[in-house]
Amino acid sequence: MATPSLNWKMTQSGSANFILSFPRDAVEIHTTYVGDGLGSVVRAAVDLGLGSSSAIAFLPAEPGGTCLFFGDARETAYMQIVRFSDMQSESGRWSGGYLQWHGRVDVEEFIRNVALMGDEVLSRCGGSEGYSRKWGGIPFPSGELKSLRLRLEGE
Fold first, then answer.
1. What pLDDT, on the 0 to 100 scale, is given for residue 54?
2. Which of 42, 97, 122, 123 is least buried, going by the fewest C-beta atoms within 10 A?
3. What is the reported pTM?
4. Strands (E), the chain
């Protein structure tokens, strides 16, 4: 089992790299503001924390994107990181996926690392308004991050 440390690096306005660092390797996912990649990751963590046995996070990067699939979640979850070259066209969507990483992750540690990452993003952006300005008007997932923090405080 390997739970990644997480880093969200905004490279320029509307562009970011989501880096999952595992003990033996790292996966770097490029995403853009055509969607709410950070919010999707935070919502997946909330879902897992609420006891869902599966969750998905989508990080778009025109025309493709990367999905984090979580399954068989209990104390651990089976996570797959799959990159798709086309997530926009009806004929090509979900085809030709490339598996970048797979393995089991500790659910509580993943949730904790998502919350830490969210706090770091807020700090680097100067708050939720700064994040929204840098991310094409998409709001920061404040409510979801608060939910994660409350859950972690209640442990």
1. 98
2. 123
3. 0.93
4. 5-12, 15-21, 26-32, 55-61, 64-71, 76-84, 98-106
For residue 16, give the amino acid letter: A
- How many residues can be counted in the chain? 155
Domains of the chain: 5-144 (3.30.2450)
- Summarised one tens digit per residue, pLDDT across range 31-80 is 998 889 999 999 999 999 999 999 999 999 888 899 999 999 999 999 99
| C-alpha R_g of the chain | 15
Q: Which two tokens stand for residue 35?
A: 């969607």
> For residue 4, what are the contacts with CB-CB under 8 A and spacing of at least 6?
20, 21, 22, 26, 27, 105, 110, 113
Among 60, 79, 74, 76, residue whose Cα is nearest residue 18: 60
